[in-house]
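We store sequence with structure; for instance:
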Amino acid sequence: MTETAQSPRHVAPQRLGTVTGVAGLVTIALVFGTLIGTREEPDFTAPAAEFLRHYQSTNTIAAPLRSFIFTVGLVSFVWFAGALTTMLRRAEGEPSWRSTVAMASGVLFVAAVMFGNEIAVTFRANDIDAQIAMYAFEEGQASFANARVALGSFAVCCGLIITSTRFLPRWLGWAAIAIGAGLVLTRISWTNPIWLLPYLTFWLWVLAVAVVLLLRNFRRVDQYV
């Protein structure tokens, strides 16, 4: 006897899980791939001339090719966030306010990271004043600090749904809540490098979610409640 084909009711969520997993892996590869070989960023206490030299370097994340790859990586994160929150909405049920807030927070994170004029400053690095370069750097860092609050909101909302459902292992939910809280708190002292700890941990969480979803689909396990 031939094996009965899976119904659309089961196939669609599995495909969405695959999209989520692949988008998560692509995001991590592109976002962190742009950091390989980049020039170290100046300290906030560095003189203005150091910021100008930073933007005049071809090995910065704002350089043309790197900024393109980084932007594609951010768009991939929108795919990840959109697909993940769609599945979370199904697991959450109505009213699905937490998954809605998570989706909005993910988009807000990307928008805040993309906002700024560092790319334009890099393009005009040979024509601008050192004080303008320093201002552009600090503006970009402040925008990124705000973006981490949105990313923390995304993580907390996802974690709340995961811990209250069987959609994913609950340890992923508790981890997301802790990471999200950490990201939000780093906004208090946004120049402190402590933000790296919850930020890097968040991307490890994305990697874990992506791997779990891809393995689940590989094993054809239907747990999309």
In short: The first helix runs from residue 8 to 33. The CA atoms of residues 109 and 220 lie 32 Å apart.
